[in-house]
Amino acid sequence: MQPRPRISNTRKLVLKFNPAVVGVSPLSEAHRKHTPHFNHSTHAKRAAFTLAEVLITIGIIGIVAAMTIPTLSQKISDMQNKAIWKKKFSEISQVYTAVKLDNYSLCVNNSGDYNAPAKCRYPDDGLYAEKTTMSPEFVNAMIKHFKVIDTCGFPQYGESAYCNNYLDKWNGLCGGAAAYSFYGSLISGTFKNLPTASTYCNNAQLNGLYSGWDLSKKAILLQDGSVIYFGGHGAPMISVDVNGFQKGPNVVGRDMFAIMLNENWIRPIGADGTFNKNVNGETCGCGKEYGIEKAQGFLGSGDLLTGTQLSGACCSYKYLTEK
Fold first, then answer.
1. How far, in Å, CA of 75 to CA of 80, rounded?
2. What is the reported pTM?
3. Are strands 132-134 and 209-211 parallel, antiparallel or unpaired?
4. Distance (Å, rounded) from C-alpha 18 to C-alpha 123?
5. What is the tens place of the pLDDT at every residue in 196-251?
6. Are β-strands 132-134 and 227-232 bridged in parallel, bridged antiparallel, or unpaired?
7. What's the N-to-C CA distance of the chain in angstroms?
8. Cβ contact 249:243 at 8 Å
9. pLDDT in tens, 256-284
């Protein structure tokens, strides 16, 4: 038997990569001639944009941004304010519980020297013989639990001067010796600066503003920039401007929220017991379609039994319960 001839390594490579050997038909010369050749220069020219196209695209992006960014920014701001409000309500509730254990009188008659203890009034208890507000001793006991950098208020609350620096610092004084705090409602929108003429401020509600003159018996500015107002318009209340007066929108239901309290509970406005259901319905809604545009206190008419809630007031409760 004759030995098989040895195949050199070079021939093995030729056999391995020879299309004829592995059974692959090579492209015909005609096919190669008709196969289109990729031209990088031509492709680059087709993919380019003209200056006009670029400018139009930039213009469209600018228009879309102008339409969406303010709305997005407002939503982000509202989310931040809601988060701060939840934290503030929790803090205030804890302080209220701690101070109540010290047996301070929570309410006093809303007149005179504020030293006469009285039963706290609230909308659903059927009592309105006397208006009540938070007592000075209860307020000052609560304030000791906060990180306060400045205060103002009535002399009966231990202050040497009324909150008459609001216009430049927290809010605005409208003449005379009383403290005023003005905020817009959800209907009226952003707060508008007011002149200091007392006659104008007494008619502030005509401009669609909430006039919290009776809620500012004492106000404290905290280290985190928020402001807490103590007082009451018929019933003891605590109001919170979560981001301070220097930042907008200064609107009830956006960055201004309120709490009603008595000897038994502390609740955000909009919760059961904080509004009259005969006037506002079973549910006090959060939105422009609920409540009134202008008011002198969170209870619109100033009357605890017949007042309609200010638009935005009941958002105080909704934002604490929504997920």
1. 9
2. 0.74
3. unpaired
4. 99
5. 444 445 555 555 566 665 677 888 999 999 999 998 877 899 999 999 877 888 88
6. unpaired
7. 92
8. no
9. 999 999 999 999 999 998 888 888 888 88
